[in-house]
Amino acid sequence: MRRWNPNVISKRVWSDALDNWVRFKMTTRALKEIDNSGGIDNYLLALDNESAAKSNYVTKMRGIIASTLFHRGTLSEKYTKKLGYHKQPPPPPPPPPREAAATASGAAAKEVSHLS
């Protein structure tokens, strides 16, 4: 009797939310679905809770990506409700003081003039 095994590969995929590579073991079918959905971030967020719960790693990465997008304020309302986040993300951190920026640009100008 012939046995049919899934075509499982180890693959690194780029996460736009994390700005880093994420390593997964996946089937070639899942890789095709990731491409069709527009990346690993969209694919993991679109999974139903039952499918995501089958793997602890998928659940963990989905939570990290969703949390990152939520705190940036870019998580869509659909996924905000689906994943149980509050409606409004926390306010972004305040920008750095202007004095530090002015000092840094002045130091750069001094370095350039010193080399002339």
What does this entry show, briefly?
This protein has 116 residues and is α+β, with helices and mostly antiparallel strands. It has helices at residues 28-37, 40-46, 49-52, 56-72, 77-83, 98-115; strands spanning 8-15, 20-27.
Describe this structure in words.
With 116 residues, the chain is α+β, with helices and mostly antiparallel strands. The chain has one domain. It has six helices and two strands, in the order E-E-H-H-H-H-H-H. It has helices spanning 28-37, 40-46, 49-52, 56-72, 77-83, 98-115; strands at residues 8-15, 20-27. The longest helix has 18 residues, at 98-115. The chain is elongated and about 75 Å long.
Highlighted features:
single chain, alpha+beta, elongated
Report mean pLDDT, rounded to a whole number: 82
Main β-sheet description: 2 strands, antiparallel
Beta-strand fraction estimate: 5-15%
Number of domains: 1
| Helix/sheet category | alpha+beta
C-alpha termini separation: 80 Å
What series of H and E elements makes up the topology? EEHHHHHH
Strand order of the largest sheet: 1-2
In total, the number of strands is: 2
The general outline is: elongated
| Helix content percent band | 40-55%
Helical run tally: 6
Radius of gyration based on Cα positions: 22 Å
Low-confidence stretches: none
Map the helices and strands.
Blueprint: E1 8-15, E2 20-27, H1 28-37, H2 40-46, H3 49-52, H4 56-72, H5 77-83, H6 98-115
Antiparallel strand pairs: 1-2
